[in-house]
């Protein structure tokens, strides 16, 4: 079964051991006090080797993940190397096509690309792997993750205090079970479910995506068709706030990227706090003049006062 297979892969490749953050951290000043707190995933809730597909495409190590995936599913190493080139070319082609339509940063559906990659190989194994299996397995090879210290506890604390907690991330379908598993849940939420937000509220900290994150405040790029820092992304967030009768600045984004997160959110009036888990990340701090935080407990203190 798909669920059992993915569970095994998650257990083998995703660490639940928290990654340490800075030993001390100042408490950022937030004004106005937000109603909604949105979190980026890669580099914020989860420490990641590379992050999203854009970051992976810049890494020479990405090819090895395709070769390993080819071996695992019974294809040749040559097929894996060909897949690596074809995959990132397909991403670039789709983004270029969408730029002509006014979408600055289009998001792809990786399972659709994998469907074409698997069918492109002469004399492939029979039966062909499921494209979602191949995409999921490749991601686990390319981008090992682990939760940052205090991330799961911060999500739980904010929910207890009545904040609407959400997510705003460049992501693919596999981000959802990976995030759930890393934060202590079962990683059981799969994209064939009717809608994100309908998972049962189970797990140690209620770490099914639909239990932790409010369904109206889940913004995954693979569901939207565009990714940060495309202006459509945070325009959608700001519009959601206004439809609730709130100002955009009553939404707070916590992210690790000064451009994709901080500047992109601020352009639409959304508050933003830069998460720099290492106190030595001087280049990030220098490029962002707004609020910063090194630890999740300092963020919680800023929001709930303890």
Automatic annotation (TrEMBL):
Keyword Hydrolase found: yes
Family matches, as InterPro entries: HAD-like_hydrolase_domain, HAD-like_sf, HAD_sf
GO molecular function terms listed in the Swiss-Prot or TrEMBL record: hydrolase activity
This protein's record includes keyword Hydrolase: yes
Alphabetized UniProt keyword annotations: Hydrolase
UniProt protein name: HAD family hydrolase
Biological source species: Desulfacinum infernum
